[in-house]
Every structure is written in C-alpha cells, then in structure tokens.
Amino acid sequence: MLKSQNHEPVKPLKVGFALAPDFTLMAFTGFIEVLRQAADVGDLSRPIWCSWTVMGHSLDPIKSSCGVEITPWELFREPTDFDYVILVGGLVKSLSSVPKELISYLTRATKSGVTIIGLCTASFILAQAGLLSDRRCCLHWYHAQDFRERFERVIPVMDEIFVEDRGIITSPGGTASIDLALYLVGKHFGDERVVKVLRHLVQDWNRPMTHSQVPYLGDSQEQIDQRVRKATIFMERNLSIPLSTVQMAREVGVSPRQLERLFITSLKDSPAGYFRKLRLRRAHWLLHHSDMSVTTIALECGFNNSSHLAKRYKDFFGHSPGHSRDRGAAYAPVAKEQSDSLERRVPD
Q: pLDDT > 70: what percent of the chain?
C-alpha cells in the first residue's frame, strides 16, 4: 500500500478519459503515461495507485489528429466514479462535430462536483457548453484570438501551461499535459512519486503551472520579467499586425517608457526591435517552408509590401527574400551576434 509523506494510506487515483474528434495524441499519451509510471513500482504497469479508462458515447474508434485511432474501453460511466474526468481536444475544425452525448456527460460531471480537466482545445468545448463562464482557462497561444472572438465571458490565459479554477483545470496540451499530470501526482502522492516518474520518463524536471508557453531564443526563463513575457506572447499572436510600442504597453499594463526599460533589461533589445526580429524570422521560415508569394509573406508578417520586407530582410539576413527562397535551406538565419549587429543598423 502506498503511503503519503505523513505515512498515511493514500487513496488510489481514478481517472476517466473522453476523446474529442481529431484529438491530439500527444496530450492524451503524455498524461496517461505519467499515470502509468506513477501507478506502480518499477516498470510493471499495474494500475495499483492510479487507474484509468477511456470512455465514449459508443465503442466506435475515435481518430486522432495524426490518424491513429483509439477505441473506447467502455461507454460513459457515472462521473462520480472518478476523481478527474479528462477531455482531450484536438483540431479546431473538428469542434463542430463533438457528439452531443459528450457535452451532456461533461455537464453532468460538473454538476456532480467532479473535477474536469480539459487538454488542448478542450477549452473550446467546455466554453461552448457554458462550463467556463467567468472562469480563467489556459489556452494554447496559437488559438487565443479565435477563442476570444467566440467566448467573451471566459478569461483566457496564454502565459501559463495550466490553470485551475473552481473545479476545472485546463491546459494547452502538448508536453504541458505531462507537467499537469505530474502536478496531480505530486498533489495526491507526494514528491517521491513525481521523482520516480521523472526518472522513468528521462525528464529533467516538471514545470510549474506559471511556466511560459513560449520559448525564447537564447534567453533564460528566469531572467525574463513577467511583463516582458506577456508582451512577447502578444507579439507572437499578432505577427501580421505592425504593433506599436504604445499598443504593446497597453496590453501589458505599463507605460511605453517602462516597457522599453524592461525589454532592455531582460532581452537587451527594444520592444520594436524584438518584434521585428520575430516577424523577420517568421518570414524566413515561410520562404523555406511554404509556396506563398513574397508579397503574401510580407503582409502575413506585418510588412507594408514586398519591397518593405525585402529591405528589412536584407539588412537582417544579408540577402534578399528571393535569393533565400532560390537557395532553399542552404541559407540559415545569421548567428545571433551578427543579427544583433545588423539589427542595430535597422531604424525603427
């Protein structure tokens, strides 16, 4: 019998999974693998301290976004049989085909007082069902604008990897599902179980819920001010819009001058300079990985036209967009030291 750090017997953790059409496999498998590792000693995979099942309104296979199908093990069970009911979302285009039986089950689970966990785009489904009104929910930064336009009464969070608010936990999915699962393992079983899982998954550490979703090029997370982090996420979501420093500062809730100082301290760059680098790197990626015209790429990345992009692009990378596309992957972004030098020559 597993015991807590106070040597008290620990109640086994029971979890029920529900999968939306075109669910993301990473969110599902990452979470369930943590449960598997936490459930037993070694790698024996016995569901002793954690048990889980996969449910559906029918036993027909459910296709994931990558094409792998999962067959539910059973029909929807009484929600109170579980400590957590986990909904795994997926492609936004498939949200309209979510079965009404799944929505009814989630509503019943909420009314029963069972904690609901939404992974990936599950937040869209929960919001559509009216279960997130006036709650904070964690979204993948990529889907933030679309969510805001649809659900005005929900408070979206994009600068954390999971959020817990009054009986509903949400996560943007991906590897953040692993962090959320580790958080629950620690909450129910203590740090020893977490360390065991980390070792078996060959993972260095579990990120806290306040960890940022957005990786920063060459910058340590610990050195970045939270307000700078929020500003850079705002930039990431609006690469096609030529944002001003005033707009960025308003989004973060500081003055433009203060935002300038924060950026110089955290990133050794101005807000405008950092934003321009993001847009140029996005343009570089599109030139190599899409068949979009240079003009379309320019507009997609917030430049007035192809000539405007060409000038900035050459200043930053040392060659034209057309030359970069012709040579393909042979052209990689310039080294950071060189790009910093070039960037200083580009006026705002």
A: 88
One-letter amino acid identity for 73? W
Is the separation of the CB atoms in 273 and 343 below 8 Å?
yes
Find residue 89's DSSP bridge partners. Answer: none
| HSE-up (13 A, CA, CB side) for residue 241 | 11
Question: 211 with 179: CB under 8 angstroms?
Answer: yes
Amino acid (1-letter code) at residue 112: S
Residues near 302 by beta carbon (within 8 Å), at least 6 away in sequence: 238, 239, 240, 241, 242, 243, 279
As a whole number of angstroms, the distance between CA 20 and CA 93 comes to 12
User: For position 330, what pLDDT does the model report?
Assistant: 39
Write the pLDDT tens digit of every residue in 201-247: 998 888 889 877 765 444 444 457 888 988 988 888 788 888 999 99
Which single residue is written with the structure tokens 């101005």? Answer: 270
User: Rounded to a whole number, what is the largest CA-CA distance in the chain?
Assistant: 69
pLDDT given at position 332: 39
At residue 221, the pLDDT reads 47
Domains, the chain, with CATH or none = 13-201 (3.40.50.880), 221-344 (1.10.10.60)
